[in-house]
Amino acid sequence: MKVLNKLAFKNLMLNKKRTISTIIGIILSVSLICAASGLVSSFRETLIQNTINQTGYYHIYISNLQEDDIKNLQNNKEIKDIKLLYDNGYSYFNQEKQEEDNPYIHIYSLGNIDLEDLSYNLLEGRAPKNENEIAISQSVFNNSNYKIGDTIELEVGERQSIDDYELNNMNPNHSSMEKLVNTTKKIYTIVGVVSKYNTNHMYYGISSKDVEGEMIAYCSLKNPSEYKKAIAELLDVDNYSQLQTFPEPDTKYKDYFINTELLRWEAFAFSDSTISMLYAVMGVVLFIIIFASVFCIRNSFSISTTEKIKMYGMLASIGATKKQIKKNVVTEALMLGVVGIPIGILSGILAVFVLIKIVNAILGDFLLTNINGIVFHISIWPILLSIILGFITIYLSAISSARKASKVTPIEGIRNTESIQIKSKNLKTPQIIEKIFKTGGVLAYKNLKRSKKKYRTTVISLAVSIFIFITMNAFITNMFGFTTNYYTDYDYNVTIYGLNSNNIESIDKILSLESIEDYFMLYSYRDNGIKITDKSKIREIPYTSLSRNNILNVITGQLEPIGEEFIYLSIQALDDASFKKYVQKLGLDYESVKESGILCDTSQYYDENSQNSKEIRRYTYDKNDIIYGTLDGEEISIKVGGITDTGPYGLENTHYTDGYLIINKDLYPDIDLELENIMIQSSNPETLVNEIEKIDNSLITYNIDEQVKEQKAMILVINIFLYGFITVITLIGVTNIFNTITSNMELRQKEFAMLKSIGMTKKEFNRMIHLETIFYATKALLYGIILGLLGTFALYKAFAIKIDQGVYIPWYPMLLSAIFVFILVFFIMKYSMSKINKQNTIETIRKENI
Amino acid sequence: MEILRVENLSKVYGKDSTKVIALDNVSFSVQKGEFVAIVGASGSGKSTLLHLIGGVDRPSSGNVYIDGKDIYKYNDDELAIFRRRKVGLIYQFYNLIPILNVEENITLPLDLDNQNVEIQKLNELIQLLGLETRKKHLPNELSGGQQQRVSIGRAMITNPAIILADEPTGNLDSKSSYEIVELLKKSNKEYNQTIIMITHNMEIAKTADRIIKLEDGKIKKED
C-alpha cells in the first residue's frame, strides 16, 4: 500500500506543469468560495456595525418603566444587558419667537451609560457628567439663543391634557389643550450639543445621573437569532407575528420599540419572501462556483489519467484490484487538496482583505452614513464552508477519473496501440466537407468524430465558461435592476415638505440662500382631480373599486348609490422650467407636449396567486389620446403627451392607485394649484438644511444627498465585486481550456509528425487545425449559449420570488463570449502548434512513451 | 505435478466479416518445473495464448486450470489477486513504472498484496539478477538488458506458480538476450520455477525443455 501512495506522490511530481495547474484550479475555486462567503460575512458585520452606530446596541426598548419592571427585566434570562435612560419630563424653553405651537424640550438622563452607548454624537462641547449639566439637541440649539457655557433654568414636569384632549406624546409641540404639571425647577449648565441619526426636529436635552422619573430600558438579547421567541415572551404574547397585526394585541409593556433594522442584519430578520430570494440567489451562485470548479478540475484529472493509461494497465496486469487503483487516483486528488485548499482559503481571506481596503480607500466616506467603510470580518463559517466544499469539489472531480482508471484492462497497458472504438461507417465524411475544406477538412472532421470523448471535454469546458459568463451577467443585471428600482437618479439633494398657507412666505427667503443651485417646485390640485366616467378607459385592478356618489333613501334609511361610477385622476403640476426639464428627461419634445399632460398611472397590487407584487397600468389611454372629464364640475379635456412610470421630481417612486397627470402650471392658470413640495439641488446640503430650519422650523426638510451617495456607492461596489467574481471564474475556465487543448495537441504529436513525414504541407496542416478549432468552438458556443439562457432564466425565477422585473435576453454577453471564445481557442491552438512545429518529426515518431 | 492445463481454449475477435479467430480450440498441459517455449509466426496466436493463461484477457470459450483451479471462474477482483500471487508476467517492452526505482518496481506485487518484504529474499534475488549496484536507480538510468532483468525480478518476487514471458529478448541485443535466457534457465533449474516463454527465435527456443508450435491459432506439433 505504501508504494501505491508513493506512486501517487511521484506521479504528481513527475508532471509538474499539470500538477501545478490543477492545484491552481483548486486554489482559485476554494478562494472563490472563501472570498464570497467572507464578503457576505464582512458585509453583514458592516451593516450590523452601521446600525449600531445609528441606534446603539439594543434590540428592543421599553419606556415608562418603574424600578420593579427593571428588576424583572434584569432577571429575564434572554436579556443580555440593559441600558437605562431616565425620562425626567418636559419643559418649555427659551426661544426668540413666543408662539402658540412650540416644542417642549424633553429632558432625559443617562443611567448606567455614556452618550456613545446609544449613539448620540457630540457635535460640540462635551458630555454631561452630573445632574447639573445638560447637552442639548441640535434642533434646540438651532431654535434658541442657547450657547455652550450658558446656565439655564427650566421648569421640568409632566404633560397633562385639559378636558378630553388626547395627549399625544409623539407631538413635540405644546398647545392650549395641555399643560405642564408637577414642575420642579432645575438649573443646568449647557456643556454640549448632540445629535443622533434620524432625529431632526427632536427637541431634547440629556443630563446625567438624575434618577427621577420613569425609565427607558434599552435591552439587548443574548441570542439575537432567537429574537422572536424572546420578544414574544418579554411582551407576553403568544407569538411574535401577533405584534405585526392590526389592531395591536395586549402586550405586557405598552410603550416599546423593536429595533428591526438591527435584527434584520443580526438575525436575518427579513420577510419570508426576501429570505427565499436570498437563499435562492446564494444557492445559484454557489452552484455555479462548484459546477465550474468540479468541471475544470475533473477535466485536469481526466487528462492526467489518460496520460497514465499504460501505467494503470500495467498495474492491473500485475494484480492491482479495481479498488486499489481507484484509491490511487483519489489519493492523488486528496494530496492536491491538502496543498490547494489551505492556500485557497488564505488567498480567499487575503482577497477579501485587499478588496475591502481598496473599496474603502476609494469610497469609504460615501459608503454608509454611520460607518467609515466596510468592516473586515471572517468568522469560522467561511473557512469551514471552504474546506468542506473544497473537499467535496475535489472528490467529485476525481471520482470519475478513478473509475475510468480502474476500468483499464491489463491488455491496454501491455499493448502499445490505442484502440479506436468507432465503426468505420461513423467516420464517413459528408461530400460537402471534402469539397469545401479538402483534405485538411476531411482529417479535421474525422478527428473530431473519432476522439469524441476528448473533443467533448474541450467543448464542454468552453461551453461551461460561456454559460458562466452569460449567467453572471444576468445576475448583475438583475441585481442592478433590483437596486435601481429602489435607488433612482435624483437631480436634487434636499427636499422640503409640509408647505401650507402659513409658511409659504418663507419660501422666497429660502430660495435666495446661497448654496441653492437649482430647484423644482411641485404643485398639486388640492381637490380630488379630474373626474372620469368613461369606464372603457379604466382597467380593473384587484382590491380597488371605482367610486360612486350616494344618496340617502328617506324611505329605507339606507345610503344608495346614484349616478355613474367614476374615478378621480389626480393632478400634479410643475412650473414651466421644471416641466421642460422633466419632459426632456423622458425623451419628449417640449414644444409639442407643453400643453399636454404626462400620465403616470402604473399601479402596484398584490397578486395572491403568485404571492408577488405586480405592476399594471390603471388606464388604457395611449399617447396622443384625449382625456375627457370634469374638473370641479366643469368639463375639461387634456391630451396625453406621454405615458411613463417615472414620476417627476418629488414623486419618483410614488404610485397612486388611480394614477396622476402632470401638467405645466404656467399654461393652466385657471386650475387651482397649490405648492406642495420644493426639491432643491444644493452645493452644501447639510448647511442648507440647518439654514432652512433657522428661517422656518415648521418646514420639514430632508437631506437625501447622503442617501443617494450611499446608494450610488453601493451599486458601484456591487459592480466591482460581481465583475471580479466573473473574472475569477473565467480564469478557472481559461486554465482549464488551456490544459485541455494543449494536452489534446500533445497526445497527437505522433500523428502530426506522421502526417508531416508523408508530406502534408504546413499550409494544409494549419488549415486542418483551424478547421478543427472552428468546428468545436462553434459547437461549444451553441451549448454554452443555450445553457447560459437557461441559467439566466433560473436566476430570473430566483429573483422573481421577491420582485418581478421581467426576463431579459443577454444579447451583449452572448456576442462577447462568441468573440472571446474564438480568439482564445485560436491563440491556444497557435501556441501548441508552434511548439509542435518545432519538434523533430522523426524523433517524435520513434518516441515510445507517448 | 500438473501445474497448468489448457482445455479447448478459443479466442475470437470481431464479428461476421471482421471475425478473427486468434486461438482455435487449443489444449495442452504443463508440469511443474518445466521450461516451455511457444513459437510461431506473427499473428499465430502466441501472445493471445499467453495472455489467456495469465488471466489478463478472457477467452471466448474453454478453460484454464492453474494449480487445479479454473481461473475463469474468478471475478475481476479475484482474478487480480490471482495474478499477483500465482503468475509472473514478463513483456517484450519491460513495462516498468518509470518513476519507481529498481527495488520498488520489483517489490510492487508484494506491496499490492499488502505483504511484508523479506529483505533477505529481496537481496538474494537482486544478486541473482546482478543488479546490486543499481538497486536505487530509475528505469531510465538502466540499459535495456538491465530493465528486462528488473521485470524478471518483479515476476519472480512472489514465487508464482508460473512465469509467463512474452518475447523477453525481442528488444535486446544478442549479448543481453543471452544473459536473460541464462537467467531464466537458472531460475528454472535452481528454484524449480515453471516458465512458459514465447519467442520467434528458434535458437532461444531450443534452450527450453519443450517447444509448442502455433500456426493459425492451432497447435501444429509438439516436441
Q: Per DSSP, what share of the residues of chain B sits in E-state strands of 2 or more residues? A: 25-35%
Q: Report the strand count of chain A.
A: 25
Number of helices of chain A: 22
Q: How would you write the strand order of the largest sheet of chain B?
A: 6-7-8-3-9-10
Could you say what the CATH architecture of the domain at 2-93 and 160-222 in chain B is? 3-Layer(aba) Sandwich
- The H-and-E topology of chain B, N to C, reads as EEEHEEHEHHHEHEHEE
- Share of helical residues of chain A: 40-55%
Q: Which stretches of chain A are low in confidence, meaning pLDDT under 50 for 5 or more residues running?
A: 482-487
Average predicted confidence as pLDDT of chain B: 86
Describe the protein's architecture and organization.
The complex is a heterodimer of chains A (850) and B (223). With 850 residues, chain A is of the alpha+beta class. Chain A folds into 4 domains: 206 residues, no CATH class; 200 residues, no CATH class; 208 residues, no CATH class; 213 residues, no CATH class. Helices cover 49% and strands 20% of the residues of chain A. Chain A has 22 helices and 25 strands. In chain A, strands 13, 14, 15, 16, 17, 18, 21, 22, 23, 24 and 25 form an 11-stranded mixed beta sheet that branches. In chain A, strand 21 and strand 22 form a beta hairpin. The longest helix of chain A is centred in the middle third of the chain and has 46 residues. With 223 residues, chain B is α/β, with parallel strands linked by helices. Chain B has a domain of 155 residues: Rossmann fold (3-Layer(aba) Sandwich). In chain B, helix 3 runs parallel beside helix 5 and helix 5 packs parallel to helix 6. The longest helix of chain B has 18 residues. Chain B is globular, with a radius of gyration of 17 Å. At the A-B interface, helix 1, helix 8, helix 9 and helix 11 of A face helix 2 and helix 3 of B.
